[in-house]
Amino acid sequence: MRLGLIGLDNTHADHAIRHLNTERALGDVRIVALCGGTAERTAQLSGQGGVEFGVDRPEDLIGRIDAAIVMDRDGDLHRPHAEPLLKAGVPVFVDKPLAGNSADAEAILAAARTGGVLVTSSSALRWAVEAMRDRLEALGPIRSVVATGPVQRESPYGGVAFYGVHVVEMALHLLPPPEGEPQISVLPGGVLAVARAGAAHAVLNLVERDADGAVPFAVQVTGTRGVLAEQLSLGKDYTLPALRRFAEMVESGKRPLDEEALLAPVRLLESLTRAVPPR
Question: Does 117 share its domain with 7?
């Protein structure tokens, strides 16, 4: 499977090249084309092996690849980079978030329907939570999921949404899409948001980064009969599960997440962004 990689400013691009081209972790799935980086960045990634060519625009990839990965740090770039490929029938994985706002997210999904192909998107942390699923049965019906992680309100890549997307996807992965607007409390050092998701609460505990570092990602699942709490350990291969699910989607034609699961994080992030402007 020949992939094009769009958006090279993200360190996830380095991980993708390492996994797919250097280590060949997914067999014949590899990145053959790069798009959207400086000459220096393109040369750096190409030097890791397997890359055949670079292009200036996503449209220039059409007819030369089997699928694409969009990895720009700025979610506002995801629609213009993914949409033309999807409309042309190229499956796309959009690294978190799917888009910078729900209108763009819905347009991306519409483009996939127009092109008759699938699109997916996820935070790598979503699949770390998925790995806990086998241990949840003993808890009984879930009543709350509390996800904790860092936030950087002044990030130039979407403010609170840049790191916040990880926490949002961690909280929502085990629950149905939230209903209505979340309740949000904002303090100088953090943000707490609570959304109703079916018969449970999705709780986002966002802690402001400081000069000494950041709070680790953690999740606590509470059921009617027990509690499971875990700090998520992100090893060097933490981005690989998302890439694997994308490759499986392209090969099988079965999406790992339905449209509502893709839209729900973007909508919740919009609510957070309205409530938590940059300081």
Answer: yes
